[in-house]
Amino acid sequence: xxxxxxxxxxxxxxxxxxxxxxxxxxxxxxxxxxxxxxxxxxxxxxxxxxxxxxxxxxxxxxxxxxxxxxxxxxxxxxxxxxxxxxxxxxxxxxxxxxxxxxxxxxxxxxxxxxxxxxxxxxxxxxxxxxxxxxxxxxxxxxxxxxxxxxxxxxxxxxxxxxxxxxxxxxxxxxxxxxxxxxxxxxxxxxxxxxxxxxxxxxxxxxxxxxxxxxxxxxxxxxxxxxxxxxxxxxxxxxxxxxxxxxxxxxxxxxxxxxxxxxxxxxxxxxxxxxxxxxxxxxxxxxxxxxxxxxxxxxxxxxxxxxxxxxxxxxxxxxxxxxxxxxxxxxxxxxxxxxxxxxxxxxxxxxxxxxxxxxxxxxxxxxxxxxxxxxxxxxxxxxxxxxxxxxxxxxxxxxxxxxxxxxxxxxxxxxxxxxxxxxxxxxxxxxxxxxxxxxxxxxxxxxxxxxxxxx
Length: 454
Prior knowledge:
By secondary structure, the chain is an all-alpha fold. It is 75% helix and 0% strand. It is built from 20 helices and no strands. Helix 2 runs antiparallel to helix 11 (212-229). The radius of gyration is 21 Å and the shape is globular. The termini are far apart.
């Protein structure tokens, strides 16, 4: 068997795994969810959920990937060789292909961001921002072009191998992301309404926690913490599979979550001062990025065009870092299971994704009458529901069950704690085995109830 590639450095592993987590969930979803659920009080709940649920789930998937040295289904198969009676890898394939479903709409949305960065650089955005965005969505041709650009950039970043292009590309992306983040934060904090925006974002208002509103807010905080790390479908496991056993995983997971959270907080530091200064509602959902914030940039006179360009380049780089990390999971699957060479696997899944992303594009124009969840819904909503509300939480639950039943407790904690750095005591086995699964089941059940019965 060919020796498996590894990252050339610890920083490469940390940035690659953080890049998998950092994306639209941090920069788009986190600010508008925070705005919707009251600002600072929601942020506190989010950070608590990130520590109590996100951290152990991240450690768990990294451990399975590093111990198995394969994509998620292969890791299940290799780690459960001494077990009998159940093929853990078969359901693992089902959850693993959540990567494919995720990219079917992630490539499209990343294409939107690249398009807006291009339109700002070329000064092509004019008139009413809502009408401009609507016209863009109504054009399947323009959407497809920019979707293919995002896909080609992703394939190019993966085609040369883990060290040669994947790790190097993510290092450049993350470096550029942090630089743009600093520039935009400085600009936003100098706006006249920055103080009001920061107070909303960082000063907790616990009155929102009374009665049934607390459970709704807690559910939203748990969902955001879960969503932001992309655990459950094997994207994190593939990063672990390329990592050495020189460092214990708890410390590495802590750094990954810290990087991920810094970007989410920075997004709030950028968006809420802008909203407060220019009178934009902070809970505008998708329109917050593509309709409301362009109004902010147009209010900055001649420099608004360039700040708009920087902002959408910032978003596009964050989204591309996730695309590269998740696409690498598919490439590795092609090499390990389908026995492709790397270049052939990149080309195969690039073509497959190019085709499978078309329904999401058409959902805003030619297929707009297909409304799976009622009026106003579209293909993207269906794909996002399949991944975010089902495959991610249920996949993470399956990985936890595997660690204590298909693998075993001692081997699991040994893998977590191998290497330099602080450890997690096996005394936490009860928390991993019972408390977290119950929390996931409750979270998933609440989400399903809200979707179909509330």
